[in-house]
Design goal:
Chain lengths: ~325, ~325
């Protein structure tokens, strides 16, 4: 007995997740992992994605699942969802105006839907996660950067070319630090792993990229939000201050999103979301001070439910409900 | 020969406009004016609106136009568009959680649609104005305060209870001046008549409400944006600086709206929009510095086309296309 399913692939900076997802309920039937090789040439990165998809399709066929009804690929960074062109991807330097969809379709000989990873996650949370059945949802992904996905009236907001939802790049402090996007004082400059690293460096008087204290780096000497959280748990002042500042700006941004969207739900996901306990106090103070009381009282702020599965489940949903020009 | 029409009423802080608007093309067939008596008791303000509507309906009948197909009322401030309850209206102090729709319906014996005035204006601009045929539009009204209306995929964004689109109350500077909404550093604290007055007072070292120089007040000694514009035209440094600051923050907000919505069009209306020539330089610098280049290149920033008719045309449109819970 086979059941209808879609393939969903989530392209991260380091790893790729690739899954067979049931079309009816969004269950992950089969999950595979692989490296994303994001530093390779543009075409080689796409060939690697195509190989991962082909592998999943082969495994599924061998297990008697048959062919997928649709294939969706979630990638970081703004893209034109209609043409399938990736404008710029933070972890894939070679992708600048790269026609990912058409190249993937040529490689695997099937139609592919390409979606921004935070948008896909928002779709996934509405389908299977914390926002199930909700119609007006703001999703924030706090990871290396800050991504966003907007659901208005039950539909993903794409905007003119599918680049809407760049919620990490609203200004929360006009005089704030430089952001990777070229602006400064973006939400991402504070409430992301790179933002927190910057806050720590600033407090320690370190130049960007200088070696950090051993408690807050991982085995490869990279800044670790988990390490900073552990320090906060121990009551370390530096860690608590960094999280308090990130929470302050996160609260400012959420208050603006509340006044803009009057949502039912603000869903927060991503690796930095685990540190929300250390950001909550300053965050909620700003939400209370800045959002209209009636609007704030109608919205819950909750953690994302899907975790690492969010991208693949959402990519599968996007494939099953391909975007149409509004 | 009669043609189908709707009644649209626009409730301002001082005046009411009330019009018969053709259902097919949004033409204003008949327009009446009256005082809004906004400082009266809550019920008396509503009775005055009902009297204006009744007067319009009588005039229309006498002129052989027959009855309207629908009646729409645009009011300032956040409201629950589904229940027709006005949460708080900046110029109608007595309306706090006031059930305007049901009371108007009881007074005139007909169904009424109540909509936020900036939302109505956005609908009007898409129907008949600068955004005709556009599907993704951000409208900003720069008046005494700053209002907003959002069109996403051709539909007005209402959010959970119809209070979405409070674009004047996004934070553009966390340490900015107090805003009437209770927050501080809102867009409205800069790019509105009240914001500009505050900027002038600050530069002159005046306490809020103190007498202003005669060049920038009207015949009733109230602050006049037109007067400040005339000063800017003469090269007055104070006026040019105030507008440059307002434009700076307006540009910051517009850049955020671009990154959030990826719109086709940003439409700017209201009395302060006439001073855009004095704000444009600082505004556009911030838009260029802060919005994603691809997104900014896809959006035009234009003046609203409907002017004072925006509210009544939009209220009529809202009445003809009543909001449904998404």
């Amino acid at each position: 007995m086979t059941r209808a399913w879609a393939a969903g692939l989530d392209m991260g900076g380091t790893n790729i997740r690739c899954a067979a997802v049931s079309a009816s309920g969004g269950d992950v039937i089969l999950m595979e992992h692989g490296p994303s090789h994001a530093s390779r040439q543009a075409a080689a990165v796409a060939e690697n994605i195509a190989a991962q998809l082909t592998h999943l399709l082969d495994t599924a066929r061998r297990r008697g699942l048959g062919s997928p009804r649709a294939i969706g690929v979630a990638v970081p960074g703004p893209l034109n969802v209609y043409s399938g062109t990736v404008m710029q991807a933070p972890h894939v330097g070679a992708w600048r105006g790269y026609p990912l969809r058409s190249n993937l379709e040529a490689l695997i000989g099937r139609m592919v839907v390409v979606e921004n990873d935070a948008n896909a996650w928002a779709l996934g949370e509405c389908w299977r996660g914390a926002a199930r059945g909700r119609r007006d949802v703001v999703l924030l992904t706090l990871g290396t950067g800050v991504g966003g996905g907007l659901i208005v009236g039950g539909k993903l907001v794409h905007g003119r070319s599918g680049m809407a939802g760049e919620l990490g790049h609203v200004t929360v402090d006009p005089d704030g630090p430089r952001c990777d996007c070229g602006s400064h004082g973006c939400l991402e400059s504070y409430a992301s792993a790179s933002g927190l690293r910057g806050l720590v460096e600033q407090r320690l008087g370190l130049s960007p990229g200088a070696p950090l204290p051993p408690q807050i780096v991982d085995s490869e000497k990279n800044f670790s939000v988990r390490g900073l959280s552990a320090q906060a748990r121990r009551g370390d002042k530096l860690a608590l201050e960094a999280f308090a500042t990130a929470g302050y700006y996160l609260g400012i941004a959420i208050a603006s999103f509340l006044n803009i969207f009057n949502p039912e739900l603000v869903v927060i996901g991503g690796g930095v979301a685990g540190a929300i306990p250390y950001m909550r106090k300053t965050m909620m103070t700003q939400v209370r001070e800045r959002a209209f009381t009636t609007i704030a009282s109608q919205a819950k702020i909750v953690r994302a439910a899907l975790g690492p599965r969010g991208g693949v489940v959402g990519a599968a949903y996007a494939a099953l409900h391909p975007p149409t020009r509004s």
